[in-house]
Design a protein that fits this description.
The protein has 188 residues and is mostly helical. It contains five helices and four strands; from the N terminus they run E-E-H-E-E-H-H-H-H. A hairpin with a 2-residue loop joins strand 3 and strand 4. Helix 1 runs antiparallel to helix 3 and helix 4 packs antiparallel against helix 5.
Length: 188
């Protein structure tokens, strides 16, 4: 079997050039793997590799936050470390919110892992799944802020919270453009 010298993807069709990165393919049993001349791709994939790392980190963090919400422990938020139990006693209406947030955070963590796997394997539904992830996170963030604002009788749509939402929108736009230029790489 041959492997790509650039993306390290296995070649399933016995071609001479990787369909993902246009780099030369070499037989994995041959000596000097990686020493052949690599054809440069039109678009580098550095951001793709960075995004894969961020997706895994985010998946773990979201799962941990969801578990902390369920256990009633301390949770790291934008405001710092928050003791969920204190909020339960101060705002009884937030218990349902935290149950909802627990399920959502765990679901988002699982979905982040699925998106990571699809992007890592260059599946055609990877970039679409990433867009879906961003849209869901933005919608859930707006729901969370609205719900907490109504229970706590305060406006939580502060500049800090709004900048987080704007950051997600910007990431959605940047990644949509990034993967649109590389759509030919995501074919399987």
């Amino acid at each position: 079997m041959k492997n790509c010298t650039s993306s390290e993807a296995p070649d399933k069709e016995n071609s001479e050039v990787c369909p993902y990165s246009n780099a030369d393919l070499q037989d994995e049993t041959a000596e000097g793997i990686g020493t052949s001349e690599i054809k440069t791709t039109e678009y580098p994939m550095r951001w793709h590799k960075c995004l894969l790392v961020l997706l895994i980190i985010g998946a773990v963090i979201n799962a941990m936050i969801g578990i902390a919400f369920i256990a009633g422990g301390k949770v790291l938020t934008i405001r710092g470390l928050v003791d969920v139990g204190v909020y339960y006693s101060t705002y009884p209406g937030l218990e349902n919110y935290y149950r909802f947030s627990a399920v959502i955070n765990i679901a988002v963590g699982v979905f982040q892992f699925i998106v990571w796997k699809r992007l890592k394997e260059y599946r055609s539904n990877g970039p679409v799944s990433l867009k879906t992830l961003y849209v869901l996170v933005i919608v859930f963030r707006l729901i969370n802020l609205s719900w907490m604002s109504s229970v706590m009788n305060t406006n939580l749509f502060s500049a800090k919270n709004c900048w987080v939402i704007i950051g997600w929108v910007v990431m959605l736009i940047i990644n949509s453009s990034y993967y649109a230029k590389r759509s030919e790489l995501f074919v399987n």
